[in-house]
């Protein structure tokens, strides 16, 4: 009896994972995993559809170089790259952003509007793309165009040069830029399935009771007959 207790104590101190058994257990619980996957996808769909406010993005594009700037040498090209950085800083400057707020009579602060603005210089170009994101697609377009005009005016004033040309004015976006329904549903489905798998695995690891004849032979070093009470053998 003492030997059995020692074996049981040794078993309690060891963590042994039978991958084959775990795999079969996951197969048995597959219906739960699939159910959680469907529930997670449904919750993500509902949250994206009815809770999250869609955002619309509109972009206008400014040409970095002006009539007084030519690209005839490597130095000029480098200067164009530096102008891109200057334009980006000016586009997000307080003077420009507050001018847009005043021109459009927006009920917002500099910090709030600045959070809606992103600037990007497409690789290999001397263009600056000004993108504004807003829940109202018409307002996103209006702010982006006003920002392009204010930026061009500010550049001409600060750099004492010609006003840069606006290559492309923003148009009203037809579809929201975020959230992505497909992406959110996929994340929700994966999260639901992962949660179900995690629960099954944790329950499996924490369950250290002797359940099968194989467990009796493995952990107690007894054959099945020896584990059966004497009165049940008769």
UniProtKB/TrEMBL annotation:
Domain of life: Bacteria
Signal sequence bounds: none
Domain called Polysaccharide chain length determinant N-terminal: residue spans: 16-104
Places the protein is found: Cell membrane
InterPro entries: Bact_polysacc_biosynth/exp, LPS_length_determ_N
Keywords, sorted A to Z: Cell membrane, Membrane, Transmembrane, Transmembrane helix
Transmembrane segments: 30-52, 185-206
Pfam families tied to this protein: Wzz
Membrane topology note: Multi-pass membrane protein
The keyword Transmembrane helix is annotated on this UniProt entry: yes
Family under the similarity heading: Belongs to the CpsC/CapA family.
Protein name: Polysaccharide export protein
């Amino acid at each position: 009896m003492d030997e059995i207790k020692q074996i049981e104590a040794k078993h309690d101190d060891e963590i042994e994972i039978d991958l084959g058994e775990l795999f079969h257990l996951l197969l048995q619980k597959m219906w739960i995993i699939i159910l959680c996957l469907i529930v997670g996808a449904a919750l993500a769909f509902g949250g994206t559809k009815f809770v999250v406010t869609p955002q619309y993005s509109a972009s206008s594009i400014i040409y970095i170089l002006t009539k007084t700037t030519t690209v005839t040498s490597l130095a000029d090209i480098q200067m164009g790259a530096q102008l891109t950085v200057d334009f980006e800083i000016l586009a997000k400057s307080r003077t420009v952003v507050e001018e847009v707020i005043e021109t459009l009579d927006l009920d917002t602060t500099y910090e709030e509007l600045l959070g809606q603005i992103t600037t990007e210089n497409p690789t290999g170009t001397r263009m600056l793309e000004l993108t504004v994101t807003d829940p109202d697609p018409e307002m996103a377009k209006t702010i982006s165009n006003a920002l392009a005009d204010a930026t061009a005016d500010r550049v001409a004033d600060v750099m004492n040069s010609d006003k840069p040309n606006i290559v492309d004015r923003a148009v009203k976006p037809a579809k929201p830029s975020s959230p992505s329904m497909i992406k959110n549903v996929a994340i929700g489905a994966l999260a639901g399935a992962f949660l179900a798998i995690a629960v099954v695995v944790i329950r499996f690891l924490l369950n250290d009771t002797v359940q099968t004849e194989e467990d009796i032979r493995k952990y107690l070093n007894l054959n099945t007959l020896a584990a059966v009470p004497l009165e049940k053998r008769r």
